[in-house]
Amino acid sequence: MLSSTLTSRGQFDPNARGYHAAYREGEVNHCPGCGRSQWIIGRLSAECAFCSTALPLTEAHRQGQGATVTCRSWPLYPTLDAA
User: Fold this and answer.
1) What is the DSSP letter of 7?
2) Which of 54, 52, 64, 68 is nearest to 23 (CA)?
3) What is the DSSP string of 22-83?
4) Does residue 78 register a pLDDT over 90?
5) pLDDT tens per residue, range 41-75
6) Does residue 5 surpass a pLDDT of 80?
7) Which residues pair with 45 in a beta bridge?
8) Burial of 3 by CB count in 10 Å (0-12 exposed, 13-18 middle, 19+ buried)?
């Protein structure tokens, strides 16, 4: 039976969710499938190089649709004036 992640007051309690496997950048990450620590890192997930177990990146929510696009108002290649 699934337990609710809401408290009696209706507030979200992340500790009630339980274990959540995710790849954390800057830490030693052991694969939950085979226990090794060799990873292929993508944009949104990391895949174990040995058993192909995929884990979401903890930093993945900061990428994607919220990316900022910068437009330049000057030419990238200025024309050369012949003297």
Assistant:
1) -
2) 54
3) -B-TTS----TTT----EEE-SSEEEETTT--EEEBTTGGGSSTT------SS-SSPPPPP-
4) no
5) 998 899 999 999 999 998 766 555 555 555 555 55
6) no
7) 56
8) exposed
Task: Tell me which residue has tokens 């174990």.
Answer: 48
Domain ranges of the chain: 27-62
Mean pLDDT score across all residues of the chain = 75
Please name the residues in contact with 37: beta carbons below 8 A apart, sequence gap of 6 or more: 28, 29, 30, 31
Listed residue (27, 28, 53) closest to 40, CA to CA: 53
CA distance 42 to 25: 12
Return the amino acid letter for 33. Answer: G
> Taking Cα atoms as reference points, which of 35, 65, 68 lies closest to residue 53?
35
